[in-house]
């Protein structure tokens, strides 16, 4: 649940703290390592909610259905296996991964983008047998360029500066990390840095209505530090998702596509940080500014399947957006109140 009463106005955006900008050592694990999971508690509300979700029967996977929730049940089972060693969970995850491959046909890239990363994270956590792993890796490579209604994960990531692109970037990055494609990981980082606002890194996106951009001649994924329009602070706005509510107006309308985009963006940030990139500091802590704007300017805290974002952001920036209650899994991942909460 979101921290509806947190104070966020007092958090300034000056130079990032040393912990946020220092060069990082890469960590094992795409999302989290088995060693880290082994140290997590097996009691308390977060563990109980994870177990509840992991106990669900896995429906037939369908990567062509953007509303399919099989992927998050698979991740829940992988988490519980990694913590308990219960082979029944591992067996279910293996079966789901085998069943998922090829079901992307007939869908849109948004559907594959929302779901693919979940199966990658789950596969790493359970450890596939060598023959199954070879098949999975071959399929992963093919998914990045698989044509879905004229788009691929790569082109969606590099052209769409909204929720489509951020989810595509997260799944593309997860696949690249799993198969060990260093140039592909570096390209994902380059594109993401450009989306956050550093156009010198990447500026190849195709934007829609520009009325929420602070500089329409130089559009970005998150408006820069101190950005204003008509005297109103729009620093931290995600213009290409905020426009889905309406062209620029004030008070700002609540647009959930912004949180949808942040789900993909925060997922990328977690994985890039583990790969050694100081991503939380990029573009004057752009991700922090996005959450600050939503909380303090738009009066629009995260609820429902967006609440998993909050423990991660609090851990990265020392904020208090999360109220400590159970979170809900998002489109591709969740249970961050168990995996990523500060302890």
Give me the secondary-structure topology.
Blueprint: H1 18-21, H2 34-38, H3 45-54, H4 70-84, H5 87-100, H6 109-126, H7 130-143, H8 153-159, H9 163-179, H10 182-196, E1 228-229, E2 232-233, H11 239-242, H12 256-274, H13 282-297, H14 309-317, H15 336-339
Antiparallel strand pairs: 1-2
Helix pairs in contact: 3-4, 4-5, 4-6, 5-6, 6-9, 8-9, 9-10, 9-12
What does this protein structure show overall?
By secondary structure, this protein is an all-alpha fold. It is built from 15 helices and two strands. The radius of gyration is 19 Å and the shape is globular. The two termini are 18 Å apart.
Radius of gyration: 19 Å
Structural class: mainly alpha
Tertiary shape: globular
- Count the beta strands: 2
Strand content: under 5%
The helix content, as a percent range, equals: 40-55%
Summarize the structure.
By secondary structure, the chain is mainly alpha-helical. The chain is built from 15 helices and two strands.
Q: What keywords describe this structure?
A:
mainly alpha; two-stranded antiparallel ribbon; disordered N terminus
């Amino acid at each position: 649940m979101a921290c509806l009463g947190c104070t966020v106005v007092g958090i300034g955006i000056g130079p990032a703290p040393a912990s946020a900008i220092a060069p990082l050592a890469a960590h094992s694990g795409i999302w989290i390592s088995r060693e880290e999971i082994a140290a997590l508690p097996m009691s308390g509300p977060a563990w109980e909610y994870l177990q509840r979700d992991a106990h669900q029967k896995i429906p037939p996977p369908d990567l062509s259905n953007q509303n399919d929730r099989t992927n998050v049940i698979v991740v829940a089972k992988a988490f519980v296996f990694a913590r308990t060693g219960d082979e029944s969970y591992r067996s279910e995850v293996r079966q789901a991964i085998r069943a998922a491959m090829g079901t992307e046909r007939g869908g849109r890239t948004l559907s594959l983008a929302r779901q693919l990363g979940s199966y990658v994270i789950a596969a790493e956590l359970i450890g596939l047998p060598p023959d199954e792993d070879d098949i999975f890796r071959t399929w992963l490579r093919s998914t990045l360029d698989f044509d879905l209604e004229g788009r691929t994960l790569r082109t969606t990531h590099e052209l769409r500066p909204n929720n489509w692109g951020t989810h595509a970037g997260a799944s593309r990055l997860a696949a690249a990390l799993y198969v060990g494609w260093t140039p592909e990981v570096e390209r994902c980082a380059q594109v993401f840095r450009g989306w956050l606002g550093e156009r010198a890194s990447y500026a190849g996106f195709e934007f829609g209505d520009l009325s929420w951009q602070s500089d329409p001649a130089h559009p970005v994924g998150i408006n820069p530090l101190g950005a204003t329009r008509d005297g109103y602070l729009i620093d931290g706005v995600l213009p290409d998702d905020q426009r889905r509510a309406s062209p620029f107006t004030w008070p700002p309308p609540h647009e959930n596509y912004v949180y949808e985009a942040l789900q993909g963006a925060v997922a990328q940030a977690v994985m890039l940080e583990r790969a050694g990139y100081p991503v939380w500091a990029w573009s004057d802590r752009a991700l922090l500014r996005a959450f600050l704007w939503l909380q303090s300017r738009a009066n629009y805290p995260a609820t429902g399947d967006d609440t998993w974002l909050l423990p991660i952001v609090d851990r990265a920036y020392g904020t208090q957006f999360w109220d400590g209650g159970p979170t809900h899994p998002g489109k591709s991942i969740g249970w961050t109140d168990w995996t990523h909460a500060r302890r």
